[in-house]
Inverse folding.
């Protein structure tokens, strides 16, 4: 099962996304940008769904920090944001996000396709050699 780090500070959004994804993914949760950076390193997720609007450092800064660390740089990040204005997609990609998905998530198959493509493309960099 793919290990997914879900970064979301809103409890309603967190619950909704978890319910939609928990059958397909092993979900780890972070509620702040700093916690996301820590869990990206400690839990070695295969992909990160990153809320952009977070209470301490925003999701873009958290992504920059994750991508700047050689231990986590190759983990794909999909930005999740309610900010669907012109230029927002470009801003998330410039921060290091690999993809962008507007919230609320209305097209789950599209999101799942993005996750599967990014995980397949990223390769086995995050496989734990001590596992199983």
């Amino acid at each position: 099962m793919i290990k997914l780090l879900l970064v979301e500070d809103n409890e309603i959004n967190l619950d909704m996304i978890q319910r939609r994804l928990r059958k397909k993914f092993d979900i780890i949760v972070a509620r702040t940008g700093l916690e996301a950076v820590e869990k990206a390193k400690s839990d070695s997720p295969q992909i990160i769904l990153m809320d952009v609007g977070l209470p301490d450092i925003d999701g873009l800064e958290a992504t920059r920090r994750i991508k700047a660390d050689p231990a986590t740089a190759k983990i794909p990040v999909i930005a999740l944001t309610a900010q669907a204005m012109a230029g927002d997609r470009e801003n998330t990609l410039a921060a290091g996000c690999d993809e962008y998905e507007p919230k609320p998530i209305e097209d789950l198959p599209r999101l799942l396709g993005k996750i599967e493509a990014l995980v397949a493309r990223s390769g086995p960099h995050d496989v734990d050699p001590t596992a199983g």
About this structure: The chain has five helices and five strands.
